[in-house]
Amino acid sequence: MAIRDRMSGNEAVAMAMKQVNPDVMGAFPITPSTEIPQYFSEYIANGLVDTEFIAVESEHSAMSTCMGASAAGARAVTATSSAGLALMWELLYVAASSRLPITMAVVNRALTGPININNDHSDSMGARDSGWLQMYAETNQEVYDNFIQGILISEACRLPIMICQDGFITSHGVSNIDLIEDEKVKEFVGEYRPENYLLKHENPLAVGPYGVSPYYMEIKRQQAQAMKDAMPVIRDVAEKFEDMTGRSYGFFEEYMMDDAEVALVIIGSSAGTGKEAVDRLRAEGKKVGLIKLRVFRPFPRIPLAEAMCKVKAVAIMDKAESFSNSGGPLFNEARNSLYDLENKPYAVNYIYGLGGRDITVEDFYDIYQDLFVIYDNDDPGDVYRYIGVRDSRFK
Amino acid sequence: MAYNLKKEVEKKERLAGGHRLCAGCGAGVAVRGVLRALEPEDKAVVANATSCLEVSTFMYPYTAYEDSYIHTAFENAAATLSGVEAAYKVMKKRGKIQDTFKFIAFGGDGGTYDIGLQSLSGAMERNHDMVYVCYDNEAYMNTGIQRSSSTPRYADATTSPVGTVSPGKLQNKKNLTEIIAAHNVPYAAQTTFIGNFKDLHEKSHKAIYTKGACFLNVLAPCPRGWRYEAEDLAEICQLAVDTCVWPLYEIENGKWKLTYEPKKKKPVEEFLAKQGRFKHMFRPGNEWMIENTQEYVDVEWKKLLKKCK
């Protein structure tokens, strides 16, 4: 029987970590992810877990200790946000290329410049090419469920994984949650048994070589293959999870998409606001839908393109700028995935919610109206757009 | 049991030959010397900061290490090994491993005095059961002899070159051993290669088998950067300690102890004259550089003697 409770997203992640009882956690304080190591330290202080917690002097060292621990043969976890993730940047690539499964809770927050502690996706989107798996959540329930699945996915793929949630919105917002019993979680994740590790009795292992030109490219190609191969792993783990909980997870969720004419593609908590707009428009007889992306790495190019092709126009929502002059990261990849299809929808981009800028049901309402105009006029106009910006020059 | 070099070298080598370090390089000597202090029945995990040592000893697909080894980046060998040590503790506690492992990190002065200082400080403060060994060759040799905070004053380095208006590096060498000692770690020491390697061996053994975070600073000359003949390595190390440029001492549980006192302190010229990086100091009109260096060495030596009283 599931345990009904209510808690914040940070507490939900800490709870998942407690139930997993990992070998090592290395972490450093940063808003808004700080609560995760705080809760976890309390579990340690009260003997509820026997993890080695390393209170490091920086996020750079947090990732370094996780890499060391993972290579040594341990199940390693950490949590961070924003500038903390940015400080890990160099090592994200090292962790992925060394094929070290590490599960990292990322509580998404804007990158500094200027400093801002609120939510957007610039931190993890910036790390999108580092070779980490990435999953995003709309709710506390999803981030809890993703974290538990993430441990298994990461270990099966031998790739590190970011389990992302929206800073303050879900990390600090308290809501109802169905927790899984401790024993069931333990059974689900099992024991971590890597094939080779530094502390193995039989055979010493060397990790992190100088990879010269005759070898480097093969190593990268193998990483790319691991990312490809992660697709069926994510699906299989989701099936196993559904068997345990009844909760179903795919690469993305389709909301009212069956007969939709226009749709949003969105990541994270704002999908909830978008769904409210869908409900209101549906009540007015408008055929609108929404696709909420859960898995960004690997990018589910083919299934996502198929889902988008059900409609005539899509608005692809980016909570991160990439300053490319051609739209945000989700837009570029999602739109790219449509290229080979014959009957593709119009696809436009909206940058929204930067640095915690609110996005409302009315905003989504307006976006759906825009999509109908595009569809009716057969003209997408400027595909790279902003919503919610106050500067009149950019309206 | 008294130290016996002949016996020690009969132990199985833990750094295999065939690595790519230069002839006359101190790094390989340091690694072999430290690893020789491991008891043969104990296993080890060696961590390495990006360095000459790293690129020369673990070029895919060949490793020179008989023990497990990890390299992740330049500035984080101490933190990386912290994670390995934490994993060992918990896996041992949970009954997943039975062997005894020791944890030894090697970093150059760039990776230790400079870019890795924060990571090292963190690991020392947290008191992980490990040894961090700095093989100090007093510049960024791997990238081409750029100055570091360990480069001594007046040394000619590629980012502190001697020129018509510059006498080489303008600043004094950082005293890292004292910085680590200020962390109140159980054991910190300075050593190099002299005589029968007794000093290096005994300090390594103590560092490896003292519980908690221990630190060794090993002067490990570089023939390319210091510009000496490969066969002069041992002589240069001996001169470094006999001139008191590199005093040998240890700090054990807060107690400072000199482990070598030259019978007759030699003038610094004897150390400097052997090396091309100090060549300009011997040009007519530059006598003041040698005088300044001698003065600095004398002051530092006196300060050290006071601590070791």
Describe it:
The complex is a heterodimer of chains A (395) and B (309). Chain A has 395 residues and is of the alpha/beta class. Chain A has two domains: 3-245, 3-Layer(aba) Sandwich (Rossmann fold); 252-394, Rossmann fold. Helices cover 42% and strands 19% of the residues of chain A. Chain A contains twelve helices and 16 strands. In chain A, the strands form three sheets. A seven-stranded mixed sheet of chain A has the order 3-2-4-5-7-6-13, sandwiched between helices. Chain A is globular and about 70 Å long. Chain B is of the alpha/beta class. Chain B has one domain (5-308): Rossmann fold, CATH 3.40.50. Chain B has helices at 5-8, 26-35, 52-57, 77-93, 109-114, 117-126, 176-181, 198-209, 223-226, 233-242, 268-272, 287-308, and strands at 43-48, 58-59, 62-63, 68-71, 101-108, 130-136, 187-191, 213-219, 249-252, 255-258. An eight-stranded mixed sheet of chain B has the order 4-1-5-6-8-7-9-10, with helices on both faces. In chain B, strands 2-3 form a two-stranded antiparallel sheet. In chain B, helix 2 packs across helix 8 and helix 4 packs parallel to helix 6 (117-126). The longest helix of chain B is centred in the C-terminal third of the chain and has 22 residues, at 287-308. The radius of gyration of chain B is 19 Å and the shape is globular. The model of chain B has no long low-confidence stretch (mean pLDDT 97). Strand 9 (206-207) of chain A pairs parallel with strand 4 (68-71) of chain B.
